[in-house]
Amino acid sequence: MKSPVWHPYAHLKTQAPAPNVVGGSGAYFTLDSGEHLLDATCSWWCMIHGYSHPRLIAAIREQAGKLCHVMLGGLTHEPADQLARELVRITPAGLNHVFYSDSGSVGMEVAMKMALQYQALTGHPEKSRMLSLMKAYHGDTTGCMAVCDPEEGMHSLFAKLLPQHHFAPAPSAPYNATQAHVDHDLNALRGVLERHHTEIAALLMEPLLQAAGGLNMTSPAYLTGARALCDEFNVLLVFDEVATGFGRTGTLFAADHAGVTPDIMVLSKGLTGGYLGHAATLATDRVHDAFIGDSPHHAFMHGPTFMGNPLACRVALESLRVFEEENYLSKIDALSHSLRRELLEDAALRAHPAVADIRVLGATAVIEAHSATTLAGVGTFARERGVWLRPIDRWLYTMPAYITSEAEITHITSVMKAWFLER
Ligand SMILES: *Cc1c(COP(=O)(O)O)cnc(C)c1O
Question: What are phi and psi of 240, to 5 degrees?
Fold first, then answer.
């Protein structure tokens, strides 16, 4: 019998049989066929320490011997408390409160509910819509689908089910853009706010790197400008750092590139080093303190069963320790340097007619093709060369684990280039 496992984002009629993973070590995972594949995606960008990291495994084992789970409703425990303190310490100054949940999508749902309730509690119940950006991806739950790019964001089938929000154009100014170019993007954002701010609770964005919506890399000045606009129009600024958090853009958080503190920030993917599913929604005093009051509406009515799971919190703490003790930001810097050299500086690749653009930011690199059909078959091609690559539409990208060596990075980039240059 075929496996009853239903795979995500797959056409059931044409999908290839899924390789069976039996283990992994470092940047590689192992298949039951004996193949070792170098994971260029670090498993949807979360396995930042690679597979079978001894310290993370030991942390889970140790915690499992003490307490695997307990509800956070009315109770607390040391891993939840310690992790919250650590997250407050490392995130932009002012984010002093931590609400846990179990996935990035739910972390974003929490952020949206929090923003809306904040506005209601501070006398603006009419501010009940979100402002999102084109090319955004914020998750697959109903609330999140409604703030993903409504045209290219793969959820158009559900348009009738979804609440209607506002959208501003995706920022087009790249990382090193001139202020004039960024001002063009900010003026578009201002236009939407001027027309609709009376009904907008929060502006949501994936800072610097719109990830699943096409690896759009944008300018830190856009974040600074967005912060000022939000203050001007009494709109909360929500950073979805589910993909960008924990080093992916070269600093610990993308917000750090601009020195901006959002009102609410969401973390997930890299939070536990990928070893368990978890998320955190952080808020400033301004947001948090609005919930202190006497009416029934002051309670925040949300509480996923597994929020603050002790195993997840404990492994997240260990992940952070490894990150800091082993100076991951310098590793990420070296990775970024290699990615630039191998991809951005390759004249033949740049000139290839199927290549629309090449971009690198931190430990993220993408070759954008003009058409998705150009990339049909690249997964099999890469697997035959020992690499696991899984493009998104017309974007062939890598987001490697931070422990990936120089030789392993050039292995990944050589396969990405060979797809265009050696067939
Ligand atoms: C992956 C992702 C999410 C959703 O996280 P899940 O854990 O898959 O629910 C939300 N926002 C961004 C930016 C993401 O990359």
Answer: -90, 95
